[in-house]
Every structure is written in structure tokens, then in C-alpha cells.
Write a structure and sequence with these properties.
Layout (H helix, E strand, L loop, with lengths): L2 H14 L9 E5 L2 E5 L7 E5 L5 H17 L4 E7 L7 H7 L3 E2 L3 E7 L13 E5 L3 H15 L4 H13 L4 E8 L2 E10 L5 E9 L8 H15 L4 E6 L4 H6 L3 E12 L3
Parallel strand pairs: 3-4, 10-11
Antiparallel strand pairs: 1-2, 2-3, 4-12, 5-12, 6-11, 6-12, 7-8, 8-9, 9-10
Helix pairs in contact: 4-5
Organism: Streptomyces pratensis (strain ATCC 33331 / IAF-45CD)
Protein name: Acetyltransferase
GO molecular function: acyltransferase activity, transferring groups other than amino-acyl groups
Amino acid sequence: MEPDEMLALFDHRMREHARPDGPGAHVERVGDVVRQTGGADDWNGVLWTAPDLSPARAESAIAAQVEHYTARGLGAFEWKLYAHDGPAGLGGLLAAAGFEAEPAETLLVAPVAGRSTPVELPEGVRLRNVTDAAGVELMVRAHELAFGTDGAQLRHRTLARLADAPDTFVAVVAMAGDEPVSSARMEMYPGTGFAGLWGGGTAAPWRGRGIYRALIAHRARVAARHGYRFLQVDATDLSAPILRRLGFTALSTTTPYVYRTAP
């Protein structure tokens, strides 16, 4: 499949016809946008915009989403803007409405077929599947060590996914002895052919030893067993070069525009 065909498929299945990513969330199309609404610890925001969106309609849609989310008392929500979304200048319209752009990420996709590479870990490191609250705490600890951010929302979302739909969710922690040093997650979206890779953070002293690649290989094997065709990643500048070397193709970039209703 050519990259433009893959991007069109991704937009259709994963954005325009997105499914909720947790039990407390609801996805709906309202006018020119598809949005997800959940609780304070869920991901809230706009996933897709109509391809023929005009500047005037964009301004109206932006105002409507600000009203929708602030009326629910949410502290923040996100407009997930892709580089190929229209109209031209949509990012500027969002900024003018009070959204703040966060670092862009690269949308990369790879076929699952043929990705039966071995899961090679450094000596003394093993993988632990996350299936219970104790495993979630280890994953949160690894996430906080890797990214330096609070893992409270990650804890909430992971516990909810394990309770609600464990058959379509995978989480794993790389352990060095009793210390969690890396973690990663995979969301499998039934009926789409896509499995999304998330997390993939490694504590600084353990980077460059192949753990990130091992976590990709582990999740690819799981996706293959479940019959998924494609792996999808929103990659940072740190992980994008590794993924390209592993055969992933860049389709677009995505920038989170975040609207905060409170400091």
C-alpha cells in the first residue's frame, strides 16, 4: 500500500470513525469534527476534522468545542491537528482562540506481517506483563522515570482498560531486577486492522541498549497473534529515527493544540 493510501485508510478508520479509548469516554461526530469526551482523567479532544473545512467553519467549530468542554468543568482538552488537515492556517486559528501548541510528533505506520524479529533484551532485563494493580504501579514508575511527568492519569486509564477490555489492551514493563526501567502499551482497535503503540519510554541510564526495540518486537508479535495488519505510532523526535530503521513509514505529523481552562 502506498503512503497516501495508508494515510487515507488511517484517517477513515482511526479518526473519522474513532472508537472510545476507555469505558468512561464517548466519541461523536458533531458538525465538522469528531471528538471524544470523558472524565477529568480521560483523554478529551478533537480527533478529526472535515476535509473541506473552511476558515469560517473552522472558527465556528473551535468556539463550539471550547464551549462544549469548558461547560463540563474539564481543566484542559486537546485538538489533535495533523499536518494534512485543512484549512491552511488552522493552527493559527487555534492559537488565536487560546490553544497552545505542544511539540509535534511523527505519525508512523508499519505492516505487522514480516515483523517476527526476536525480542532481544540486555542481560539482566526481563519483560513483565501488566495484568493487575501491582503491575500498573511498576509501569507508572517506569513512565515517570522515563518522561519526568506525573503518572496519575496513566494509572487511571490503564486500570480502566484492564478492567473494561483486557483483550484489546497490552501493557508491559521491562524490569532490571526489581527496578522498572521501561514500559510500553498497545491499544488494539477491533475492525480497523490497526494496533496503536504508546508509551515506549526508557529511563535515561538504560537507553541505547535495545530495550525500546525489544518492546516494539514484543508488541508486534502480540498484534500478529490477534490478526492485526498495521502498527501505528505517534513518535517523538527521539524515537522516530529508531522506528524508521525498523521499517516504519512516516505518513504525517501531528501537533497537540491544548486548551487549558485553568492555570
